[in-house]
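User: Hi! Is it possible to get a structure for several chains at once, not just one? Here's what I have:
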Amino acid sequence: MNRQSILLVEDNPDDIALMLHALSDNQIANPVVVVEDGEQALQTLFGAAGQAERGVPALILLDLNLPKRNGLEVLRELRNHPNTRLVPVVILTSSLEPSDRLNAYQAGANSYLRKPVDFDEFVHVAQQVGSYWLRLNQPAVDN
Amino acid sequence: MLIPAEVATRHVAHREGYARAAQPRPMGMGLSLSGRRKDGSQLPVEISLSPINTAEARLIFCAVRDATERRATERQIRRLNEGLERQNTELQAVNNELEAFSYSVSHDLRAPLRAIDGFSKILQSSLEGSLSERDSDYFNRIRKAAQNMSKLIDDLLTLARVTRADVKLASLNLSRLATAVADRLLENQPERNVTLQIAPDIKVLADPALLQVAMENLLGNAFKFTSTKEKALIEVGCMSKDGETVVFVRDNGVGFDMNYADKLFTPFQRLHSASEFPGTGIGLASIKRVMSKLGGRIWAESSVGEGATFYLQFARIGAEQ
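Assistant: Yes, the chains can be modeled jointly so their relative placement is included. Here is the combined structure:
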């Protein structure tokens, strides 16, 4: 993983395929690293205990409902760690529950999006996320 | 009345002890006392003692009351309370389970729909050119069905959320909320010719989140059922009835047959076919639940082709205490 990468944390294989398709449909060429649970996400970012730390991605797309460590736990750990404290994290989930939204923002999410069922909208969401967070937005630390 | 055999000997000492430092003791104070009937059976009693000092001697005035009924009532109240507490715990558990259930519905039922819609669209695009018109129609039907089911899940979740919502009543400006909701609807359908007449400063006693659900559904319906009119007119107004606020939402849409008025607010009950007007049949059921949670009610008047009027009666402002 390098500073141009997108880290996609998503456990549903269909959603992974759809997201990869939507990103490539939108000519977003940043390398995408996919991990399928919260523990893997943390390991990818911080390495296993004792290992050297890994690179920090340009953007993290984080599902909430994940095996092992859920999205909120991952987010809280990211925000506690100096290397990842400022990485843009976009929550991408099925849930619109008010408590999920509140918890995500309180844990330090930069944005909260619902995965649309309509694939045209899904592609549009991917395009907006890519163009905003990877091109328009100026990150705290230069990539 | 007699003293029960097992305390008879102690009672002498008790009586003398009391007489030495006599203080008034009101009826039923703290002690669980028993008396003995002529036939030897015992009964619960309450005793009050009042010392009266006269020139000759200190008299003790003693009133004894049969407490059988009172004890029985107390026992029954305790039993009822325990029962209620148990029921409450059970209800809480059911409620938590329902909450977990709808959460899971929201996540797990939607994911496959995303896959159905998404991969249909991807296939449709990559096969473009080699698909017959009928094939394309089928792909569109698959996608439409997935999207309809997604809408159905959303509506069911709203209904569930309304049902379990904690109600916080406050005086709210319904006019402002209705205007915001209607503006959003207009933005989404810029091709429509809709005249909105929303009376200013209608104040109602409601919960903000619940009122939002009600107005979104009511105005959404008014937009939907006027979609066949060249010029749609939607009014939101207010009148006072016995000190209570009655808000009405009136449209000049297709209306409905009053014979079916009682079915209008039943979940999944629709009065129009999906090809005429799409919908899930949950919207009005949600509003009905909202109004009952707000301590108000909803009813409707209409005739076919003449538009419909929905009346919302809210609790009186000031009634929140």
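The CA atoms of residues 37 and 114 of chain B lie 80 Å apart. The beta strands of chain B are 33-36, 42-53, 58-66, 170-173, 194-198, 203-206, 232-241, 244-251, 297-302, 308-313.

User: Great, thank you!
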